[in-house]
Amino acid sequence: MAKIIFKAHDGTVTEVEGREGLSIMQHAVSNNVPGIVAECGGALSCATCHVYVDAEWQGRLDPPGGMEKDMLDFVAEPRSNSRLSCQIKFTPALDGIVLHTPESQY
Fold this sequence. Notes:
The chain is α+β, with helices and mostly antiparallel strands and 106 residues long. The chain is 17% helix and 20% strand. The protein has a single domain, classed as Beta-grasp domain (Ubiquitin-like (UB roll), Roll). It has helices at residues 24-30, 55-58, 66-72; strands spanning 3-7, 13-17, 50-53, 82-84, 97-100. The chain has a five-stranded mixed sheet. It is globular and about 35 Å long.
């Protein structure tokens, strides 16, 4: 079983089964992962699915596109490893990916 690992700011770890073709955000929402609000449902019109990609996984993802970069300007605490989980499609190559959720989304 492929998995996605979410680590909350309080240390809570949630593992979900990864299905190819769905976004990381879709996985989080369908599994009630704490810290992922996803107000726009993946339409790239908010930043409430913000995650921090674990350093080990950063180089394995395509870089964010221009619209995603623009939306990342609206996150509470942006970092160099900030991404919008709606823009990361799960593939078998991402089996075991670790993502950290921020303390707040807005």
